[in-house]
Amino acid sequence: MKLVVLGSGTSVPHPQRASTAHWLETETGSLLLDASAAAVHRMAEENLAWMDLDAIWISHFHLDHMGGVMPYLFGTKWAPQTQERKKPLKIYGGYGLKKLLRAFDEAGRYKLFQQQFPVHICEIAPRAEFEILPGLKAKTFSTPHTRESLALRLTNHDGATLVYTSDTGYVDSLGAFAEGADLFLMECSFRQNKPVEAHLELADAIRLAQRARARRVLLSHLYPEWDGFDIREQAKKFWPDGDVDGAVDGMRLEISKEQGVKSVPPA
Ligand SMILES: [Zn+2]
Ligand SMILES: [Zn+2]
């Protein structure tokens, strides 16, 4: 499966880091891992087939993770590229997602759920197991961030595993949830002395990655306090043998069980 970092940033506007969004593609379809408001433009900018997107995963309801859902639906409702589309779009997230999206739609009378193709909102419980794309199994884990926040473990048919924490505070069991991940995509909001419990700083992230024995770690959701720091170098201080990188907008990775994680050039 292929991962494209659309946004490695946060809620704070930043010139190089769009708010949180990642594109994941398998042989059977495509999926957004969070959809900030920037995601709509960033998909087009990266020449990705936004019109064929199969599913959207919303980790929680903070707007730097889901503010792009309504603009995307407004786009597909009117764009020439989606007028012939028949295949459904599925939007996954925790309890309350339906109410939130419906309330926005009704308040503006947009009729965003009346499209040329079916749109399904699927509310997912913690510890749920389901197929998010054909052949791509998903498991969820409730994280200490907001009430509905969920981490996601994805396993492709070849066994390749990606675990996405999204925003979370530190909890040991999240490391166990990510056990053996080929790619552990983690939030690492802060460098050190984090001002809130509901996020991770570098030492937390590394502890979880070590607990998980993750093959490769990609730190994302980076606040501007990371500007000017070499994340790989910083991570080496905590974990000399670890394979840890900072996410950069536009980064493309291929994840397979056999070869691990490899960088790929843009299409
Ligand atoms: Zn966030
Ligand atoms: Zn958040």
How is the largest sheet built, in terms of strand order? 6-5-4-3-2-1-14-15
What's the average pLDDT? 97
pLDDT under 50 segments (min length 5)? none
The overall strand count is 15
- Distance between termini? 15 Å
State the domain count. Answer: 1
CATH topology: Metallo-beta-lactamase, Chain A
Order of helices and strands: EEEHEHHEHEEEEEHEHEHEEE
Oligomer description: single chain
The CATH architecture is: 4-Layer Sandwich
Largest sheet: 8 strands, mixed
Structural class: alpha/beta
CATH H-tier superfamily: Ribonuclease Z/Hydroxyacylglutathione hydrolase-like
The unique ligands bound to this protein are:
zinc ion
Query: What percent of residues adopt helix (DSSP H or I)?
Result: 10-25%
What is the 3D shape?
globular
